[in-house]
Each structure stands twice: as structure tokens, then as C-alpha cells.
Specification:
- The chain is α/β, with parallel strands linked by helices.
- The chain has a single domain (about 1-260), classed as FMN-linked oxidoreductases (TIM Barrel, Alpha-Beta Barrel), CATH 3.20.20.390.
- Helices cover about 45% and strands about 15% of the residues.
- It is built from eleven helices and nine strands.
- The protein has helices at about 1-10, 15-25, 45-50, 70-80, 115-130, 150-155, 165-175, 195-205, 220-230, 235-240, 245-260, and strands at about 30-35, 55-60, 85, 100-105, 135-145, 160, 180-185, 210-215, 230-235.
- It has an eight-stranded parallel barrel with strand order 1-2-3-4-5-7-8-9, surrounded by seven helices.
- Strand 1 (about 30-35), helix 3 and strand 2 form a beta-alpha-beta unit.
- Helix 7 (about 165-175) runs parallel beside helix 8 and helix 8 (about 195-205) packs parallel to helix 9 (about 220-230).
- The chain is globular.
- InterPro entries: GGGP/HepGP_synthase_I, GGGP/HepGP_synthase_sf, GGGP_HepGP_synthase.
């Protein structure tokens, strides 16, 4: 009984679930920054990282083994006071109590059992004991056929933006399996983003928090994702090259949400 009580006490406050639910229900939009442990934090981002306009920091990557993850999370926590930090795991080794939450991803767009359930089984007990807030997330890779690092590591192919029915059927399967969140990802470094039609159709069917990332390298693409129904957009590659891009998108988000209130 004492053991169970201690575990219960360790559970983190459900900051990320609350954030995603609030965005999904209110119609307001959010922005997340993805930090790859292999690359660390760009010093030019320190001031922006604790901006009240930044909603979430994701930490993880396809090639990250978990080494250096805790050190990076501690570094981010020294910079950030209020923005929740969530692990975006690429493998079973990416678990740490230093984060607030973890997206418990199942790669539904592929058919590799290791990324559907294998890594998840191996990491389950450690996640349970960590006290992390866990968000069951349907992870669906979608682009125009580009093969990027995430596809290489997971040994899966992306679904195509033109395969709208297959993508929406995949999302519905995730919903019926009990997934609480949906993540449409074109892949880090993708030249194209997930299409507006795909975002709109998935959001219309699942009616759950929807995260969209990959290929969002311009303000116009971010606005299009917002318009189509994305609740939270994830920035990564473009910010690594140009940290000022994060400030630009945060300004766009603020203006977008203000216009929603005005309407």
C-alpha cells in the first residue's frame, strides 16, 4: 500500500493534457518547439524559450538513444519556468523524470510492430515508475513521398497527402483504440507540410486534440495548418537554422487567437 501511495504522489500534474484539451475545445491555437537532444539548445533561443506565448517544448528525436536526455532536460528547466516540457520519444530509451509529460506514441501509419507496440512494451514499466504524465498518441506520418530520418529509423513509409481516406481511416482506428491525441507529421526536414485537406478531414472525424508538425517552414504554412484545424503546430528544423522564426510564428499565433476572440 505504501508503494502504491508513493507512486500516486509522484504523478505529475496533467499540464499537457489540460493544454491540449483547452486548445481543442476553445478553438485557440498553440505553438510547440521540438528540440533534438543530438543538437541541444541554440543559445539564441534562451530568451524566447520562456515566452508566455510558447505553449509546449517537445524533446526527442529519431536518432536519440536517450544518452544526454536528462542533462538536456535539466538545461531547459534552468531556462524555462512555466512552459511544460514533454518527451517526444523516438525509442524506448527516451524516458526521464526530468520532463513533465511524455507522448506515448504508436506509429499507426506504418506496419512495423516495433513502433506500433514493441518499444512501448519495453518502456512501459519505466514510464509507470517515472510518474510522468502520459498522453496516448496516434502518430501518423504523412507527406508527398519523401523518405526522411523518421522513416529510415522506423523502417516504415509515409502515407501520401493524396491518400485522404486511408489517412482518416487510420486516425479513426486510433480513436477506436482509445488514443487521446493525434499527431500528423510530415517528418523533420520535409519540403512539404501535411495538406489542409488531410488536417481538416482528420480533425472533423476524431474531434480530439490534433498536433501537426514537419515542413512548417513559413508563416503561411502555419496559418494554413491553423485554418484547417490543427490545435498545436510543432516547429523544429527551421528554428534550428533561424531562431527568429520562432518569434515570428508566436506573433502570428497571438494575432490569430486575437482575431478569433474578435469574431
Amino acid at each position: 500500500m505504501h508503494f502504491l501511495h508513493d507512486l500516486k504522489k509522484k504523478r505529475k500534474v496533467k499540464k499537457v493534457k489540460r493544454l491540449l484539451k483547452r486548445l481543442s475545445q476553445s478553438g485557440n491555437k498553440g505553438v510547440a518547439l521540438l528540440i533534438d537532444p543530438e543538437k541541444g539548445v541554440n543559445p539564441r533561443l534562451h530568451q524566447v524559450l520562456d515566452s508566455p506565448e510558447l505553449d509546449l517544448i517537445l524533446v526527442g528525436g529519431s536518432y536519440c538513444t536517450g544518452e544526454g536526455l536528462e542533462e538536456l532536460l535539466r538545461e531547459i528547466k534552468r531556462i524555462v519556468a512555466k512552459v511544460p516540457i514533454c518527451i517526444f520519444p523516438g525509442s524506448q530509451g527516451q524516458v526521464s523524470q526530468e520532463a513533465d509529460a511524455l507522448l506515448f506514441l504508436s506509429l499507426l501509419s506504418g506496419r512495423n510492430p516495433e513502433y506500433l507496440i514493441g518499444h512501448q512494451v519495453h518502456a512501459a514499466r519505466q514510464i509507470h515508475q517515472s510518474g510522468l504524465e502520459v498522453i496516448p498518441t496516434a502518430y501518423i506520418l504523412v507527406n508527398n513521398g519523401e523518405l526522411l530520418s523518421v522513416h529510415s529509423v522506423s523502417q516504415t513509409l509515409p502515407l501520401l497527402n493524396t491518400q485522404v481516406q486511408l489517412i482518416t481511416d487510420t486516425a479513426l482506428a486510433g480513436k477506436f483504440l482509445g488514443m487521446q491525441c493525434f499527431y500528423l507529421d510530415a517528418g523533420s526536414g520535409s519540403s512539404v507540410a501535411v495538406s489542409q485537406e488531410v488536417i481538416f478531414e482528420v480533425k472533423s472525424l476524431v474531434k480530439s486534440p490534433l498536433i501537426v508538425g514537419g515542413g512548417l517552414d513559413s508563416g503561411q504554412k502555419v496559418k494554413m495548418a491553423f485554418d484547417a484545424g490543427a490545435d498545436l503546430v510543432v516547429l523544429g528544423n527551421r528554428v534550428e537554422k533561424d531562431p527568429s522564426f520562432l518569434e515570428e510564428i508566436l506573433q502570428i499565433k497571438t494575432a490569430y487567437n486575437f482575431s478569433l476572440k474578435a469574431d
